[in-house]
Amino acid sequence: MYTRHISANILEALPDTPVILIRGARQTGKTTLVRDIMPDHISSEYVTLDNALALAAAQSDPSGFIAGVAKPVVIDEIQKAPGLLPAIKEHVDRDRSPGRFILTGSSDIMAGLRISDSLAGRMEIFDLWPLSRAEISGSTINLVDALFTPELAWPTPTDTDVMSAVLTGGYPEALARSTERRRQAWFSAYVTTIVERDIRDLSNIQDLAAMPRLLQLLASRTGQLLSYADISRSLTIPQTTLKRYMALLEATFLIRELPAWAVNIGKRVTKASKLIFTDTGLAAHLAGLNSDRFTLDRQAFGHLLENHVVCEMAKHATWSETRATLSHFRSHTGQEVDLILEDPAGRIVGVEIKASATPTSSDFKGLRLLAQSCPGKFLRGIVLHLGPETVPFGESLHALPMAGM
């Protein structure tokens, strides 16, 4: 059993928030998390909409269903009956008692229903990612908070095999498989389930034959700038269809976009987002990558390694004390910063990710440009590398070992 670090944030919200929504991809452990933390704090009714009878009742009479269940109640897989959300709002408006509804969802039902607006002030949303390396190892250090401390507090490197971490990802069920062959079988079944059940349930698109090909192509481009035109040409599908497919993949939390940094730093910059898979193990499976391929194709490893670091930072941001937004920066001349973290005060930490054990001064070019362009806001720049050493490269610039993550 893994301790999920976001648990403390959820428990903190229960005493003052009527509706809690925990959302994330299938098999990230949402149900396990709820069952783990709820019994010790509240006596809850539990309803799963994977149960056909419960689902039929919820869909046929949402108001009656909500009125009839005991409170507090945990409703699992709420996306199967989105009509329950207006009924929950109506109930909460009559009784604002905190902790009445704990919901879990495997797709982003907020995107198309505008329910988040109507439940403003009544609901708090928590995103559950696949397991972080800290949760897998039992570490309590938060990387985002470490990067924003006045004195850089980077964790001591361990003997973690970074390549293995990238290839296995963070799905609990995949991690439980004893061999690579068995993990690959799990990933194959997982993709089939998502495409044939969850995505089809979300959409009225009948022909999803292109979806597996799209996933494979996207997996080969993870960590790179997202070009709808290029992907559309490669798959010979219209951009309108492609964008609907991409929206479905985002709604089921398989992919995310890392937006371009929005602050005007006085130079022309690339505005395209970067493509990120929420789990590098799944991305490696889809792209046919393994340790042997990584040894031969360092560029492919570098892109997936960047994806890995972005995901780890995003996971830590869900439970960090520092509320940080994540983005990337690339100038029209090609200088870039792989990841930018910005806190509410505007302080900026830049992160470069290198698939090398020997960082050099040239690895800091993008970070130096960033520092010059936002004086007074640039807190520090770091280059994460595969070596064991922490090395200063100038004021507020450090090379740090990725094995500390």
UniProtKB/TrEMBL annotation:
What Pfam families would the database entry show?
A: AAA_14, DUF4143
Could you tell me which residue ranges the AAA domain spans? 17-136
Please report the stretch or stretches of sequence annotated as the DUF4143 domain: 196-356
> What is the recorded name of this protein?
AAA+ ATPase domain-containing protein
Species name for this entry? Desulfomicrobium apsheronum
